[in-house]
């Protein structure tokens, strides 16, 4: 079974620039999550999709962050404009059945300078 | 407010020295408690799910237990390859997950 694919692995941008991350979940997984993990902290949920609908985006800073999941498969997370405090690892995860937890991708490490 | 606290923040063990990691939680309606392992530069890897007080799960040198207020991850005779950050997460109604900040475990040969 192929894992959750994320790209790019690393990204360095200047503040006020925009950036986009891509995620391809495990085939057949209906639920997709984007998490932000700041160094030394646990992951924090940004947005949860069920198929192509948003289930929870209560912690997504909507003035600068947006996410979409077209056709209920791949997803993109965008930040525009980026701030220094957005420096973190952005993790994508998917699940078929939440009783078995998520499968995480390796993440995209974003550095905003 | 839902809260998950892990302790200690960091733990150094000699190879073969058993110990326990703690995850205490305050949530409104626990649906499940999850343990993950995270290696540097990688996403968390699922280890266990526990659903009710008294439940235990084992995998190799790891054993997870659950009470009404906390969970323990026991590591028996650890090896250097067990070095990682161990995260716990609680699942609440609505399928939301809240993660703790993790325990960084280092096992010295």
Helix count of chain A equals 0
Structural class of chain B, by secondary structure, is mainly beta
The SSE order of chain B reads EEEEEEEEEEE
Q: Largest contact between protein chains?
A: A-B, 23 and 24 residues
Approximate shape of chain A: globular
Strand content of the residues of chain A, in percent? Answer: over 45%
Sketch the topology of chain A as an H/E string, one letter per element: EEEEEEEEEEE
Helix amount of chain B, in percent? under 10%
Using the CA coordinates, give the radius of gyration of chain B: 13 Å
The 3D shape of chain B can be described as globular
Describe the secondary structure blueprint for this structure.
The complex is a heterodimer of chains A (113) and B (109).
Chain A: E1 5-7, E2 10-13, E3 19-24, E4 31-37, E5 44-50, E6 53-56, E7 65-68, E8 75-79, E9 88-95, E10 103-104, E11 108-112
Parallel strand pairs in A: 2-11
Antiparallel strand pairs in A: 1-3, 3-8, 4-5, 4-9, 5-6, 7-8, 9-10, 9-11
Chain B: E1 3-7, E2 10-14, E3 19-26, E4 32-38, E5 45-50, E6 56-59, E7 62-66, E8 70-75, E9 84-92, E10 96-99, E11 103-108
Parallel strand pairs in B: 2-11
Antiparallel strand pairs in B: 1-3, 3-8, 4-5, 4-9, 6-7, 7-8, 9-10, 9-11
């Amino acid at each position: 079974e192929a894992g959750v694919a994320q790209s790019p692995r690393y990204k360095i941008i200047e503040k006020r620039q925009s950036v986009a991350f891509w995620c391809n979940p495990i085939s057949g997984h209906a639920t997709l999550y984007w998490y932000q993990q700041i160094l030394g902290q646990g992951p924090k949920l940004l947005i949860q999709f069920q198929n192509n609908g948003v289930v929870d985006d209560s912690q997504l800073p909507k003035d600068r962050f947006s996410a979409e999941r077209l056709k209920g498969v791949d997803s993109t997370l965008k930040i525009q404009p980026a701030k220094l405090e957005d420096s973190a690892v952005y993790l994508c995860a998917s699940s078929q059945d939440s009783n078995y937890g998520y499968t995480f991708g390796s993440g995209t490490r974003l550095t905003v300078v | 407010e839902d809260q998950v606290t892990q302790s200690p923040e960091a733990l150094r063990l000699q190879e073969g020295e058993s110990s326990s990691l703690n995850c205490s939680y305050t949530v409104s309606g626990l649906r499940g408690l999850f343990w993950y392992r995270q290696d540097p530069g990688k996403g968390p890897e699922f280890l266990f799910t526990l659903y009710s007080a008294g439940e235990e799960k084992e995998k190799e040198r790891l054993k997870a237990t659950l009470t009404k207020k906390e969970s323990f991850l026991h590591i028996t005779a650890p090896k250097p390859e067990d070095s990682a950050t161990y995260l716990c997460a609680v699942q609440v109604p609505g399928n939301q997950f809240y993660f703790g900040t993790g325990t960084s475990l280092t096992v010295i040969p």
